[in-house]
Amino acid sequence: MRFDEAYSGNVFIKSHPSYEESKVVIYGMPMDWTVSYRPGSRFGPARIREVSIGIEEYSPYLDKDLNDLKYFDAGDIPLPFGNAQKSLDLIEEYLDGLLADGKFPLGMGGEHLVTWPVIKAMYKKYPDLAIIHMDAHTDLRENYEGEPLSHSTPIRKAADLIGPQNIYSFGIRSGMKEEFEWAKEVGMHLFKFDVHKPLQEILPTLAGRPVYVTIDIDVLDPAHAPGTGTVDAGGITSRELLASIHEIAHSDVRVVGADLVEVAPIYDHSEQTVNTASKLLREMLLGFVK
Amino acid sequence: MRFDEAYSGNVFIKSHPSYEESKVVIYGMPMDWTVSYRPGSRFGPARIREVSIGIEEYSPYLDKDLNDLKYFDAGDIPLPFGNAQKSLDLIEEYLDGLLADGKFPLGMGGEHLVTWPVIKAMYKKYPDLAIIHMDAHTDLRENYEGEPLSHSTPIRKAADLIGPQNIYSFGIRSGMKEEFEWAKEVGMHLFKFDVHKPLQEILPTLAGRPVYVTIDIDVLDPAHAPGTGTVDAGGITSRELLASIHEIAHSDVRVVGADLVEVAPIYDHSEQTVNTASKLLREMLLGFVK
Amino acid sequence: MRFDEAYSGNVFIKSHPSYEESKVVIYGMPMDWTVSYRPGSRFGPARIREVSIGIEEYSPYLDKDLNDLKYFDAGDIPLPFGNAQKSLDLIEEYLDGLLADGKFPLGMGGEHLVTWPVIKAMYKKYPDLAIIHMDAHTDLRENYEGEPLSHSTPIRKAADLIGPQNIYSFGIRSGMKEEFEWAKEVGMHLFKFDVHKPLQEILPTLAGRPVYVTIDIDVLDPAHAPGTGTVDAGGITSRELLASIHEIAHSDVRVVGADLVEVAPIYDHSEQTVNTASKLLREMLLGFVK
Amino acid sequence: MRFDEAYSGNVFIKSHPSYEESKVVIYGMPMDWTVSYRPGSRFGPARIREVSIGIEEYSPYLDKDLNDLKYFDAGDIPLPFGNAQKSLDLIEEYLDGLLADGKFPLGMGGEHLVTWPVIKAMYKKYPDLAIIHMDAHTDLRENYEGEPLSHSTPIRKAADLIGPQNIYSFGIRSGMKEEFEWAKEVGMHLFKFDVHKPLQEILPTLAGRPVYVTIDIDVLDPAHAPGTGTVDAGGITSRELLASIHEIAHSDVRVVGADLVEVAPIYDHSEQTVNTASKLLREMLLGFVK
Amino acid sequence: MRFDEAYSGNVFIKSHPSYEESKVVIYGMPMDWTVSYRPGSRFGPARIREVSIGIEEYSPYLDKDLNDLKYFDAGDIPLPFGNAQKSLDLIEEYLDGLLADGKFPLGMGGEHLVTWPVIKAMYKKYPDLAIIHMDAHTDLRENYEGEPLSHSTPIRKAADLIGPQNIYSFGIRSGMKEEFEWAKEVGMHLFKFDVHKPLQEILPTLAGRPVYVTIDIDVLDPAHAPGTGTVDAGGITSRELLASIHEIAHSDVRVVGADLVEVAPIYDHSEQTVNTASKLLREMLLGFVK
Amino acid sequence: MRFDEAYSGNVFIKSHPSYEESKVVIYGMPMDWTVSYRPGSRFGPARIREVSIGIEEYSPYLDKDLNDLKYFDAGDIPLPFGNAQKSLDLIEEYLDGLLADGKFPLGMGGEHLVTWPVIKAMYKKYPDLAIIHMDAHTDLRENYEGEPLSHSTPIRKAADLIGPQNIYSFGIRSGMKEEFEWAKEVGMHLFKFDVHKPLQEILPTLAGRPVYVTIDIDVLDPAHAPGTGTVDAGGITSRELLASIHEIAHSDVRVVGADLVEVAPIYDHSEQTVNTASKLLREMLLGFVK
């Protein structure tokens, strides 16, 4: 590097300089204002980018290399602090743009509510969309203490929009009784505790379908992801999550977009969670984009 | 304690059981959703209460004892996550109630924006209200990136309401050029860097006036208060802040309410800031209430 | 909440206000003065209560809800710092009272030695008592460097009182050679390393027996419970511990009391351990009380 | 170093190998079982020794060098966990031995109660002993919640033994009303808030007297010593404490022993407090021993 | 302990005082200057020794006791900061000495590059040496950004020296594509992701061979070892690593030396990793030395 | 921001996009391999940049604004891990380039040794160069345990090059006896403990002289800068350091370059030190560049 070159740090490792030439766009959604417990996921995307410099570009799992894929890290979408509705509108508009340009969207949260406007945009483009959702929590509330815009509601909103029978939730280990009952009644596919095994059974039924994959990092056990807002014991290992991503990669579903949310660096005292997130993103890039 | 008595932990030490008999009401305002930097002050009031069990009830500074004052810790006002306007409305309504009952309000933040509805309520009762404001930041913005409800705006709103000449800011060491210029133009009293000395000069001019005291913990140097959202070098020591509180206590102003805001426990790795906040509240109780 | 209502924070979530109407009493035993390594478990009960506000009231494992059970959180038993004998006497007296009133005792430590006086009280009421003990450590020493009152001795004392053949230890991975040999000689049931599997074999043999369950949080691997005094690699996962609790819940043993000890918040940098403890208590409440 | 030499790590830097030839003996008193708040000072001496390798041997304040003084670090006195009375007896016996051999005792705590048996031993040898006590707290209680052996009582016990008029306390900023009143009544010399200035006035009156200096690290502001059990805002800076030690060093009092207590590494997240303690010990060695 | 005995703290628990009589020599290699990511492993050996006081001397896995083996902890080899070549030369020379005296070398890193000079020394004595290597990373680079002395290169150097067919790597989950390809081409034995299972298959083929075992602590998942320079999700559990050590212990290979490297205490917020390392060393001592 | 614009995060706030048009060049020197104590300052520049987004652009101290100055943040100079000599050569070469282009160099360390090649380059251009050096440590060793390239030697090297009478050190509170003696003998200007006061006296004597200002963050007390390799009690406050920078800004010396070194984020648990460093850089930019 010559010292008079422009410095452009803090993008995900190997980000391609050209938006036009890139197949994938990585973007951050730094919003955490509706969380009921520990805030801080607004800083997730920035820290994931920073530590991405430490991961290898090659995946020994998939035998693929980041150098063989063109993706553009567009940075964080600027969102107004404390204004949930406006933030969600901005995200939807942003996604509309990306999809109009034919890009594969790979988002980083932020709280899980950011997935809601993304799904709205995806659904406009893919009317037969299915959602694969990995999470510790059902996220099926209609509102949280009266507030419809809450990090506990995105999957409910998605179910209402695209139909509950098109939602596949995995690894769920926490929620209100009413949420579990509602899921059952309306025919949502909700798998408790495990991810990899039920996923193996489900994937063949989704062959050929356009699928959006949303991963809440807290699907991992707190041992594997302490850096998140709500830690809940009894989760899966990072090995199982990696295997689940690879299972999707090797399946016949057509992944059309994905996100990884709820990484909160302030609780991540050894940078374990942000490094894990960074590795997961590499596997999602190499495994989901074809 | 007999084991069949109701347990009522987590109130400020020596809180009196009766609201009716108490002169002062302590309450928390656990809101942090408009902050532009590090969130987390929503947990301030709860942690301050917990560690209050470790402070002595006697002040060797004021030679007074908490046992000689009746105050009631009412807990936290329940506020809707991520909804700023509604939160502020609830706080104002709450204060209206307290003031109607003749109570001295002693609030704990939360972000500094919570002071805005409190001042609105105070001003309805005390039309000649003056404000003593200790802070690292001017908090004089009209809006923050377009958003009028922001933690950078409360003092500006207060100035617009009660008149800038009734605002006395101390210890300010950070702000936009425009904020400092505006303060000068409109005749606000803004003292940079120091608190105790300018306060000594100002207090006699406020003798007899009803005064609301709002203290942002970040007026302290980060060495003395690491547990806050925005750390800014060059602040005052805890000794100077204690001396400033005592200066007010010994003056002829009539303190009619006060708050201490922006304590964020997650960044307070040795519990230093919450302990300091707890001690400051003791001195505010013993020094401000007559 | 009206602001003039008494505030009663810091009890375990959904604690019932009436001792008389409650079936279960939750209580803390904040003692840590005989530990040979890292102290700090005295703060365990208080922190577990605080974070309990973050757990769901419903268990998707047991399909039960905290709202369907009446339990009363009586707070911490006040214990004299540094005086082990007096502390243990106070705990025993306290338990005598609870048992006389027909309550199900659910205790939170504190160091493991607090279980000793509880067992003394239980044994007076249930002469055919058996103990299920999950722990990383044997806790079978007669004394620790000459001191008979030590956190390394409670299970030995229990064995001497109720007979070693009535003690069932699981998950043990640390102890002196002499402790393991003693256990073998006297016919204690000591299972190394694993919990769930040997428990499945043992439970049928205990059908109908009154059983006290004592869980040292360090039976978990440090990955799952860093917040404890003695971290020891090679432990079980939180999934296995949850499954073990559920195994007992679905068995025919008659659980008559239980505790969870050695949670030390100061080493729990992401609040992972206290949250896990909080969830375990929910499962113990819903699974053990019938 | 040849690899077959015995390794003797973890002594205070430049500790002399021979007890016999040494003028001073450094020793740890790793006890913290009577503290009412945060335990952990039992690990203070060990950590202070470890980081001592990082300090320079030369004091630019005193223009003296550790290489010119012979002192022997004897390690920690082995104390029985949780047994206060026995621990204190062991310390007194240990000190009797040191004083019989004509050594200058330089102790490291441990909680402040460890100073009590040291003073008992010192007083047997020096009947005209005076005590210089630097602390945030009065430590003048007769008992703590009924317990006479508590970290809140050592100076009271000392006053009762050697006469309150021989106790000089500095920097005190916390205590019960009764403690301050008692000190006044019985003629103890108690100086609030400041150390250096009142010390300058007092030292000439103590010229020639044998003096024991006991420093509780919490006399420092939490900004300067977060790593201690009880943090209390409004303390002195490390510069003032260093100046105070040097003031004594340059005075005509005859220091006959000293200690530094209440360093608790677990709360000392940047190792600031243990490093400061290490430097203070260097200055005490070079300044107090003549 | 009498107070006039020499204190020799900070050696691994139960270290024998005599080098001559000891079969094994434990030594630290506190070097971390070529790491490309987070430095700090230079402090690994010292912290592992300190916490070793907390482990039991008996292994319930192997039914052996440290008291039945003589080993001498020689402390850290003094290495010049920032000078990689000189440091490596010093380590090789040190090992030559140990091996000439017939000692079993058990080293603690430090970064993984320290293993390179150890292997050079071992190979001089054992020309038919095989290496068992457990690690997250291939460590097979020829150089790192042009620098041949890097923590990414030791296994490559070893392969070039003793022949790639004599290197057995386990648990590998990270590396450049070229490294994996090279390993394949030259006939190195590289097993991805798992350790225990492939080890079971390989060990019989190594029966009777002299084997050096080098364990990079990051073969463990970050959940089990956050305190290391490079955390990488998807690793093995501490149970699997313990089982792997025991598998070797029970096999017919002839372990002639071993090391455990890359423990970095600064990232190890609950002392979990150093405690785990301490336990692993106990198992290596009891399992590898015959 | 449109999503297809190139993202260029992680530069110091308000960095100008054009090297050519900029008067000042900011650059990082991420080297920490010769430090004898705690490494980690290699990450200083990156973290300072990141948090710079949180500082105001306006200085109320100097009444100047970053928007009125053009500076270009060139990122970090890529340096080879563990190779000190090569790193220093690269830095010197880099500076030669900057100075040839007429830029004002503003560097961020890294360890203090990085200042040595900068001074070599500066001296080639300014033969009458004087150095203002603020530091806790003398940094005057000829070598450190035999190694001439050490973080303890840069000022000695500078003195040998430009003449000791041209070196002005302030705030020094640590060093070997020989270093202080050498400074005295050769006529270096070394001021112990204080910075602002002696600086006020010295500055007039340097009027018109080209001056390089090098600030080691550890000149601050650990209370004000815990995030550094070597914490040493008795330092100055951040207020005194700010005042010292302003004193230089208002003087008649001609600052021709400056640096701020030894910021180590890993020990900076509340991000206090990196935020302070960011503010100091703003004041250095606005105060030193004319």
TrEMBL record, chains A, B, C, D, E, F:
Pfam assignment, any one: Arginase
So what EC number does this one have? 3.5.3.11
- Coiled-coil-forming residues are none
Q: Where are the transmembrane segments?
A: none
Q: Which InterPro entries match?
A: Agmatinase-rel (IPR005925), Ureohydrolase (IPR006035), Ureohydrolase_dom_sf (IPR023696), Ureohydrolase_Mn_BS (IPR020855)
Superkingdom as given in the UniProt entry:
Bacteria
Q: Which cofactor does it need?
A: Mn(2+)
Q: State any single GO MF term.
A: metal ion binding
**Binding residues annotated for Mn(2+), in chain numbering:** 112, 135, 137, 139, 216, 218
Q: Does the keyword Hydrolase apply?
A: yes
Q: What is the catalytic activity of this protein? A: agmatine + H2O = urea + putrescine
Q: Identify the keywords attached in UniProt to this record, alphabetized.
A: Hydrolase, Manganese, Metal-binding, Polyamine biosynthesis, Putrescine biosynthesis, Spermidine biosynthesis
Enzyme class (EC, first level): hydrolase
Pathway it belongs to? Amine and polyamine biosynthesis; putrescine biosynthesis via agmatine pathway; putrescine from agmatine: step 1/1
The cofactor binding remark recorded in the entry reads:
Binds 2 manganese ions per subunit.
Keyword match Manganese: yes
Which BP terms in the Gene Ontology apply to this protein? putrescine biosynthetic process from arginine, via agmatine; spermidine biosynthetic process
Q: What does this protein do?
A: Catalyzes the formation of putrescine from agmatine.
Q: Which family does it belong to?
A: Belongs to the arginase family. Agmatinase subfamily.
Q: What PANTHER family has UniProt attached to this entry?
A: ARGINASE/AGMATINASE (PTHR11358), GUANIDINO ACID HYDROLASE, MITOCHONDRIAL (PTHR11358:SF26)
What is this protein identified as?
Agmatinase
Q: Which organism is it from?
A: Niallia endozanthoxylica
Query: Gene encoding it?
Result: speB
